[in-house]
Design brief:
The complex is a heterodimer of chains A (414) and B (294). Chain A is built from 14 helices and 15 strands. Chain A is an alpha/beta fold and 414 residues long. Chain A folds into two domains: 12-145 and 287-366, Response regulator (Rossmann fold, 3-Layer(aba) Sandwich), CATH 3.40.50.2300; 147-284 and 369-412, Response regulator (Rossmann fold), CATH 3.40.50. With 294 residues, chain B is mainly α. In chain B, strand 1 and strand 2 (139-142) form a beta hairpin. The two termini of chain B are 38 Å apart. Classes of the chains: A alpha/beta (414), B mainly alpha (294).
Chain lengths: 414, 294
């Protein structure tokens, strides 16, 4: 009797910790990222940043010792991404949808989120529509939209660039490129800046050869060339335009994705000096311990410095964790939505004295935008040029701007 | 339009055309001789770039990188032809197998590149001798673009000589007309097919290395060049080497002047040209049965 009692006690003692482990809920997040082709770098960098954020979240802990688990699938195209999102919800029982690099895919998956009432945290795609005319209450974005960059750009053109009148635009022929052109013109008009458009050029996304565009732009001779390229297209264009001395004849102005670190790394010493650029995250600005720690931690994990995409993913995971902490669980979606609205979230890109926050009306993260010019700086190799001479634009001047949301809704519909 | 603008835009179009031609010529050669529509041809463009990049990490010399890219893409092409494509020749559903197999190789080779060299963009610099520009009056032409145009012309002349003036060229042309007859005459047809596939993929590798200093070296780049190459091959005529040259020149110049005059629809113009050709001459402008395009 005594012996069997002892055995029973031992069995209970052995099972107790296991029971505790199994009772801790795992909260699944279904992520969609471009993992192959030219956009693959952004998916891979987001994956590294997610892992970094998960480690930090679990170290700090979640209510009831819950754990987050992120499943990542290559999103391929809007139709496929929609089917994966639905499968995530019905089979994997995810509590959140997450990620997405392409705006076209973001616009498709937000419909699934709306229909299924599952929160989607967009970490990379920048189409303003998602937090404006296509807003739905289960969508949140952890990185700037293109309007925020282009409005800051319009302010920069007004205040910092002298003696210009003629502008031309070149950008990819899809929503991302078209939106930036519309937004910068809206911003300039709003600020009362007078300008003359001397050319618009619409190469396809991932156009390999810009030679003929370069010669046509040289012929149009704008004072400022506004550029809306994304990813490797920036690298190809700059490489091909440089021998034509394009950068000596006009101002190159590219403030949504031109200052992406990966473009500066690929161009190395071929990057011209004095280009006006910006990005959604900079590896050398702000010069805060938080940003430095984030960049170095990423480098340690990946063996390379992060592209802009990583920061959105990193912040997105922290947003979800913070909402779960506030609500106490991940089952009450409506409470999680409320918890995220107005949430303050410290981001690597926040300068001293400012904390990013989620605009309750549009669910867009509100952040400052820093625009700089290329200067020699080889502290983050393989880049030989980084941005410097910063001009910083206050977050509240960039978003929300209800007048633009109304304009966009009128122009594109709900 | 002033003469300077015309010349400048024409040379831009020529430079665009030559890089498309270098990819499309290999694609059409494979189709003409092996009767294989190699959707993975852009992957050899990609492999050429990365082989060159790898060698240049060890010895930073563009010309050695060029040799490595051309040779590497050619060797991998021959291995794939011998180990995989040869197994599907003559099967009842060869067309479907070709489509599936070559498409699978796009995915496999693209992921292999990402696995070996990583997803981040790489850089290949121009050889210093071609880093400047040539200025003639109002026309500025990058020296490297002139070099690409010259390489394209050399490839054209070399191919003409090889196909029309050598014994091997005659065998290649004969194999594109009647493989069985050529075999009965004692020629080693499988070897001819392997060598042709290797030469064609090496040309893809050549295009990849030449384009690398002007473009982004990244996984996925092969897929981006294959669409334009297919348009060129359709316009010129499937399997016709000279058709690929004509098609590339048409597309390069239509795009170049389209950007100048009708920028909003410039990229659509190439497809409009293709549709017009398909309606007017569905077999392509210079279509003949021979790869040499007699």
């Amino acid at each position: 009797m005594k012996k069997s009692f002892l055995v029973a006690v031992l069995i209970v003692a052995w099972l107790t910790p296991l029971t505790t482990v199994f009772s801790a809920e795992t909260i699944k997040i279904g992520a969609l990222y471009t993992m192959t082709g030219r956009g693959g770098q952004y998916g891979k960098d987001s994956e590294v940043a997610i892992k970094m954020a998960l480690d930090e979240v679990h170290e700090k802990g979640l209510p009831g010792d819950r754990k987050l688990e992120v499943i990542i699938t290559d999103d391929k195209n809007p139709q496929y991404a929609v089917s994966v999102a639905k499968r995530y919800i019905s089979e994997d029982k995810v509590k959140f949808l997450f990620g997405i690099i392409s705006s076209a895919i973001g616009l498709a998956v937000t419909e699934v989120s709306k229909e299924q009432k599952v929160i989607l945290v967009g970490t990379d795609h920048a189409a303003t529509d998602l937090t404006a005319n296509k807003f739905q209450k289960y969508y949140f974005r952890s990185a700037n939209n293109t309007f925020q960059s282009m409005m800051a750009g319009a302010m920069y053109l007004k205040d910092e660039v002298k003696n210009w009148k003629k502008i031309a635009y070149i950008g990819p022929d899809y929503a991302y490129g078209r939106d930036q052109w519309m937004e910068v013109k809206w911003g300039l008009d709003k600020l009362g800046v007078k300008y003359e458009v001397v050319g618009e050029y619409w190469p396809k996304l991932y156009e390999p050869d810009y030679t003929s565009y370069v010669t046509a732009i040289m012929k149009a001779a704008p004072d400022v060339l506004i550029v809306g390229f994304w990813g490797g297209d920036t690298v190809s264009f700059i490489k091909q335009a440089k021998p034509y001395k394009l950068f000596e004849k006009m101002i190159y102005f590219h403030v949504d994705a031109g200052g992406n670190y990966e473009a500066m790394a690929a161009l190395a010493d071929e990057m011209p000096q004095g280009l006006i650029l910006s990005a959604r995250h900079h590896n050398n600005w702000p010069d805060t311990p938080e940003n430095k720690a984030y960049v170095q931690k990423f480098f340690k994990a990946a063996g390379r410095y992060p592209s802009y995409a990583a920061s959105g993913a990193y912040v997105g995971i922290h947003m979800i964790a913070e909402a779960i902490r506030k609500v106490g669980n991940a089952n009450d979606t409506e409470a999680l939505v409320k918890a995220m609205e107005g949430m303050k979230i410290q981001c690597p890109e926040d300068p001293p004295g400012f904390t990013s926050y989620i605009d309750p009306a549009t669910h867009q993260i509100v952040q400052v935008q820093a625009i700089g010019t290329t200067v020699k700086n080889d502290t983050l190799p393989p880049a030989k040029y980084m941005l410097g001479n910063w001009k910083v634009y206050p977050a509240e001047k960039l978003w929300p701007i209800s007048e633009y949301v109304e304009y966009l809704t009128k122009a594109k519909g709900k | 339009m002033d003469l300077g603008t015309f010349v400048s835009q024409f040379i831009s179009g020529l430079s665009v055309a030559m890089l498309i031609f270098l990819v499309a010529s290999g694609l059409t050669l494979i189709y003409g001789v092996l009767n294989v529509l190699n959707f993975a041809h852009g992957s050899f463009y990609l492999l050429g770039t990365y082989f060159a990049f790898q060698l240049m990490q060890l010895i930073p010399n563009f010309w050695l990188g060029l040799v490595a890219g051309v040779f590497g893409a050619g060797v991998v092409g021959m291995i794939i032809e011998v180990l995989f494509l040869r197994r599907i020749y003559g099967r009842p559903d060869e067309g479907a197998f070709q489509l599936l197999m070559t498409y699978a190789f796009i995915l496999v080779l693209d992921d292999a590149v990402k696995f070996i060299w990583g997803p981040e963009y790489k850089t290949i610099s121009k050889p210093p001798i071609f880093s400047g520009s040539v200025t003639i009056g109002p026309v500025v032409v990058p020296a490297y673009n002139i070099f690409i145009i010259l390489v394209g012309l050399v490839v054209v002349l070399f191919a003409w000589y090889l196909l029309n003036r050598t014994e091997s060229g005659k065998k290649v042309r004969a194999s594109s007309i009647d493989r069985q007859m050529l075999s009965l005459l004692g020629a080693n047809v499988p070897l001819i097919m392997t060598v042709v596939f290797g030469i064609a993929t090496a040309m893809g590798g050549l295009a990849g290395v030449l384009a690398a200093p002007l473009r982004t070296v990244t996984p996925g780049a092969g897929i981006e060049v294959i669409i334009d190459s297919l348009i060129v091959v359709v316009i010129g005529g499937f399997g016709n080497f000279w058709g690929a040259l004509l098609g590339a020149l048409i597309i390069g110049e239509v795009l170049s002047f389209g950007i100048l005059w009708w920028a909003e629809l410039a990229t659509v113009l190439t497809f409009i040209v293709m549709i017009v050709v398909l309606i007017w001459k569905p077999e392509g402008l210079l279509s003949t049965k021979s790869a040499g395009g007699k």
